[in-house]
Amino acid sequence: MFVNEHIAGMPAGYLFSEIAQRVKAFSASHPGEKVIRMGIGDVTRPLSPFVSEAFARAAREMATDKGFHGYGPEGGYPFLIDAIIREEYAPRGISLSREEVFVSDGAKTDTAAIQELFSPDAAIAVTDPVYPVYVDANAMAGRLGRYLNGRWERLVTLPCTHENGFMPELPRERVDVLYLCYPNNPTGAVISHDKLRSIVDWAAERGTLIIYDAAYRAFISDSSLPHSIYEVPGAGDVAVECCSFSKTAGFTGVRCAWMVVPKGVKGRLPSGGQVSLNALWRRRLASKSNGVSYPVQKAAEAACLPQGQKEIAANIAAYRQNAAILLEALRGLGLPVQGGTHAPYLWLKAPGNMTGWALFDFLLDSARVVGTPGEGFGPSGAGCFRLTAFGSREDTILGAERIREALLAL
Length: 410
Ligand code: MLT
What we know:
Distance between the termini: 53 Å
Shape: globular
Strand order of the largest sheet: 2-10-9-8-7-3-6
Bound molecules: D-malate
CATH architecture of the largest domain: 3-Layer(aba) Sandwich
């Protein structure tokens, strides 16, 4: 049988798997040495008591005749969808119907799968640097052409650099789909209402679909910044939004997220006429998923409720404090650094002419600290480096100190 040549032709390994392998090899050759992990954005604080109790209670319910649940609705149980709409959107004046919210096992899953709704020749644009999943998923589907000299032939990239304040300039060429992520992974940049409005207006004029990844919105510390794209008038006709419980409720291992596909968003058919993206997504889901387990959805519901929100807020505050510690340490070194204020990521320029990979090797070797090289997020990430604030307080303080010492000695 013939294989998918687009997957066979993918460059190197998936960024975070590649890093995990390098760190594993390093640890194997340096037994007993403590390595501080600030590479992948994986949370470290335990589930909140309120959330874990709801999780356990639902699991116990499943062991009773009355409380047993078999297949659930593939798009999520109404109790969770209602809690998401009531607690996450209604307070911001956003009104959504139950049919517009789809529960899944992760924003990674959703942002990777949504491209199945696009035509094979759809023109895709991403900010650069970017969370690699958006690009890889489209590349595997054959939409991006060949990978030549570190670039995808058919991918439109919008550079976001220290020089342009990390704000993309909108493309002039035809773009069918634009992926955005704010607060941004990897740069930690945030977007203003005005800028977001200008992008929504641009998309509406051109018939471009926006995939808006808002997985980090709980880290925004200024309530006047947009937490959802639907705060912008007209976004309900042009944007799909992905959110997650991973980084807020500590669900990276539990797995639960949601995607909003408003009924107002339409796609064009090659034969002419329009089709509802919501209907397409529902159709796809029915064939490809049996949804997320009942106990996980009960745990996610608890994370939305006031007591859950209160307990989760303490975790988010602790990660924010970590980010502040790292930010202070890096600023003290005089390195250009971005993020860390409204996002759990810090994005710095490597010293001198170092590449991100060279800084990765240097910090692993001399400081026993793991970060993520900017090159892994796209061409505009060259010479940059990402650190996450999701470690324990102890590791964050130690990591900041080790990075400081290593870079001062450079
Ligand atoms: C990251 O480090 O960029 C994220 O943890 C990856 C993810 O959420 O899949």
